[in-house]
Amino acid sequence: MNELLPDPVYFAGLPTVITSGAVLLRDEHGRVVIEKPNYRDHWLLPGGGVDAGEDARECARREVQEELGLRLEIGRLLAVHWMPSRASVGAPMGAHFLFDAGVVPAERLQAEVVPQVAELDDWRLVEEDELDLLGAWGASRARRGLAVLRGEAEVDLVPAL
């Protein structure tokens, strides 16, 4: 046994971290793609939870394909939002990665997006001033990503609201 690595009991006692990958996908007019899941009251950016064996960028790529039917290259990291664990509700620590999915012409989006019926009720393109549809945390996350894209902010680790 390698004495430099702790035994499995040590690892079992470490906090759990839930990770996700999401994207900012825009059209040529700067509008952002958002989606309305059937399991939430608010809209979300395309993305989801990281599966075993994949990284956050791979997750974002997979989720965009599953949820919207689009095969896209996922670009640079825009931000990592973290949420501390909340023992009072049993919520583990979270690390949420936001990536740039680039610009896709609105005409192509309208023609090619096929929302995943099992999870989504709708999708739409919204202006930056409509991002509050994402809820406070989602809107803050999206606006931070847009600020990074415009060169107004640096890629950084950002505490969630």
From TrEMBL:
Its domain of life reads Bacteria
Q: Matching InterPro entries, A to Z?
A: Nudix_hydrolase (IPR020476), NUDIX_hydrolase-like_dom_sf (IPR015797), NUDIX_hydrolase_CS (IPR020084), NUDIX_hydrolase_dom (IPR000086)
Q: Name one GO molecular function term.
A: hydrolase activity
- Keyword Thylakoid assigned to the entry: answer is no
Cofactor(s) the protein needs? Mg(2+)
Q: Locate the Nudix hydrolase domain: which residues?
A: 15-149
Pfam short name (any one): NUDIX
Which SUPFAM superfamilies does the entry mention? Nudix
| UniProt KW keywords | Hydrolase, Magnesium
Keyword Hydrolase included in the entry's annotation: yes
- Matching PANTHER family: GDP-MANNOSE MANNOSYL HYDROLASE (PTHR43046:SF12)
The family assignment reads:
Belongs to the Nudix hydrolase family.
Name of protein: ADP-ribose pyrophosphatase
